[in-house]
Amino acid sequence: MSERAAKVSPADDEQDDDQITDSATPDAATEDDVKSETTEPVTTGAESVVRALENAGVEHAFGVQGGAIMPVYDALYDSDIRHVTMAHEQGAAHAADAYGIVSGKPGICLATSGPGATNLVTGLADADMDSDPLVALTGQVPTELVGNDAFQETDTTGVTTPVTKNNTFASDSDRVGSDVSEAFALAGEGRPGPTLVDLPKDITNGETDREPDAPAVPETYEVQERADEEIVKAAAERIENAARPVMLLGGGVIKSEASEACREFAIEHDIPVITTMPGIGSFPEDHELSLEMAGMHGTGYANMAITHCDTLIGIGTRFDDRLTGGIETFAPDADLIHVDIDPAEISKNIHADYPLVGDAETVVEQLVDAVDKSPEATKWRAQCQQWKSDYSMAYDAPKDKPVQPEFVIEALDEATSDRAIVTTGVGQHQMWACQYWTYTEPRTWVSSHGLGTMGYGLPSAIGARIAADDDQEVVCIDGDGSFLMTLQGLSVAVREELDITVAVLNNEYIGMVRQWQDAFFDGRHSASDYSWMPEFDKLAEAFGAEGFRIDDYDDVADTIEDAIAYDGPSVIDVHIDPDANVYPMVPSGGDNGQFALAEDQL
Amino acid sequence: MKRGLDGPEPDERPTPAGRRNKQGIRIDPEVEATHEPRRTVISALVEHEPGVLSDVSGLFSRRQFNIESLTVGPTEDEDRARITIVVEEPDPGIDQVEKQLRKLVPVISVRELEPDAMRRELALIKVNAERPDQVAAVADMYDAKTVDSSPETATVEVTGARQKIEAAVETFSQFGIREISRTGTTALARGTDQTATAGSTAQPADEANRDDQYQRADDD
Ligand SMILES: Cc1ncc(C[n+]2csc(CCOP(=O)(O)OP(=O)(O)O)c2C)c(N)n1
């Protein structure tokens, strides 16, 4: 047993004595004492798996039972970890993912072998693309059957290698707890991501008295926290001399808790700020310097600014093609200062003139120290404000026409607090949720960015609800198509009495597809007409949730108020204008500065 | 009711002067610069554990790196294996190969070898043996060893740099080649220069060396 493991192992007598003498107050000593009396030494691999989770401070786990994972569930039976049984493993992965986004600590999901594990794959891929911290524990057939096409066998590590940060096939009951500790540490360290431990049944059933080691990453995993001082100095000079500077904040800013530092830096030096979609919430969108989100459905002003800047300070962003559009026309006049914890992101898509590898918060602090004078950019800021009014996000909402989706989003925003958490599915509703909700706090925007997974909304609302503070509302803005994909999760929300409001923007289309068909396929609505949708309010009631329906403007404010006030899961079936489309829009691979404001500009 | 947003139309907006190439590097639009692929050797020291080879090869296919050969074998330390990869990529691609490899948890260190590194490949070449004396003469030319012979066939073993193997194959083809099996390149840095060490953040081989790498690499 390593020294670090001894520290967290209450079974170790000597260590317990130390803890008592070290304790500052008699109370704390008693607590430790009590804990050591009630915590039995582990006897099986499964118990050491659960002990590893407990040692890592895990409070919640999401999953579905099954043959190969049963030993772990049996060990969970005696644990204080609250297990949330999900209706589908994809939901377990999304819930754990959202839990990780909201809490900042890896979310945990469990599944059995074979179909359980393969059902997790979408959620793992989603977390991988968005660098969300998550640990998946999958059951596996007993080691002696592995490779024989046994009942419910899948090569889970093989299947998940491309969509996990790291995975491990557990091969030793004495080590399995430490494998889980390591997976936990790896999920959260450096650039976060999903990790997986595959647990053959004989390994979890196997006897062991080995307590797991404390969470620690393997020696071969190295993370650089501080950026090279020389490059920081050069970048600082570039910023001081910029005429048209822009900060671009990505999801990494939120993950490294750098939002505060970025805000201070931007405000101190009067630099306009754009976010990527995962970066939403890192900078208050109601601040004058905010230009909101850039990219395919970003604001016109953000896209103008990013196209015309001469100095782009990109922090914690991987320059996804939905953000950049065509590479050739992306910020073509800009020197790029790129801050990222993952060296492989530097110059992967856009060449970095000033590569700053390191933790976003640390590097921004380095920049704070290095930048002495603010750039002279009065004209540029005025230009950005001009673009803000030229390309304002205004829409028509005549009372005699079907309800416009933008209006519904704004009404939901108004009815909730600044700290309310928004989760979404994927499609037009997701884009409107980006555009028309005013985000001011990090960790309040939970969405599927890189993978674009329909069905993400409801299960992620479940994970977010469990991780959130009681006074934070959780609102899932979903599309009818997206909601249909994982709505069995309503049963979970009802059972767990989770206070979630789902607003289904029901256009009876898989709208984003219809929008593209209108623009690029001569309006041929092949398989995108969803006029066969159920009545979602009634469906919600069948599950035991509260159902609401909105058909016209008169219903909007009151119904939303009632649904938010309802203490438990509620679903509003919002019948919106079926023809509404999302603008601005940069066609894929297009020039960000050439965004279309209407269909005839595509 | 209007559909869409207000604001100047695309053709009324100012456009920037610059441009980037496909690799995201700013270029002068007048003299479009492209990066040509070059062939180089990447050496990775890895934990000798199950799955690491599939992690590495999976990474290459997933990311569409243009890989020419990949060899793997044990090292002086039984817990470590060395993977030698020959890739053909433009410079930014080579840079990505190294960075992505480094991200794999079982990978200890990665570096691009200098152009003067020792590179060797082994080939088994099975030819028709109607003229055994001539086969022997050609084998001599390439320091090849005959490892099997039958009334109809002769199999020779050749080692050397890729270019030498290629030349040997070309010459042997006059007899009629029945089968070839090649190992792909393995390589080590010269002299006291270490091929891969734990914690090394190796820099790419310096520009000056690149031009003459093909002659110098073929240095038997
Ligand atoms: C799992 C999955 N399948 C298919 C798609 C492709 N897709 C992207 S957006 C979209 C339409 C979404 O429709 P809906 O959820 O009704 O939302 P809307 O666009 O109408 O707001 C589809 C089918 C996807 N992103 N995810």
The first-to-last residue Cα distance of chain B is: 79 Å
- Oligomeric assembly: heterodimer
Please report the two chains with the greatest interface, counting residues with C-beta closer than 8 angstroms to the partner's C-beta.
A-B, 53 and 43 residues
Derived structural class of chain A: alpha/beta
* Terminal residue distance of chain A: 64 Å
Number of helices of chain A: 25
Share of residues in strands of chain B:
25-35%
Shape of chain B: elongated
Q: What can be said about the biggest beta sheet of chain A?
A: 6 strands, parallel
Structural category of chain B: alpha+beta
Summed over residues and divided by their number, the pLDDT of chain B gives a mean of 88
Radius of gyration of chain A, rounded? 25 Å
Please tell me the overall pLDDT of chain A: 94
Number of strands of chain A: 18
Give a short account of the largest sheet of chain B.
Answer: 5 strands, antiparallel
Query: Beta-sheet strand percentage of chain A?
Result: 5-15%
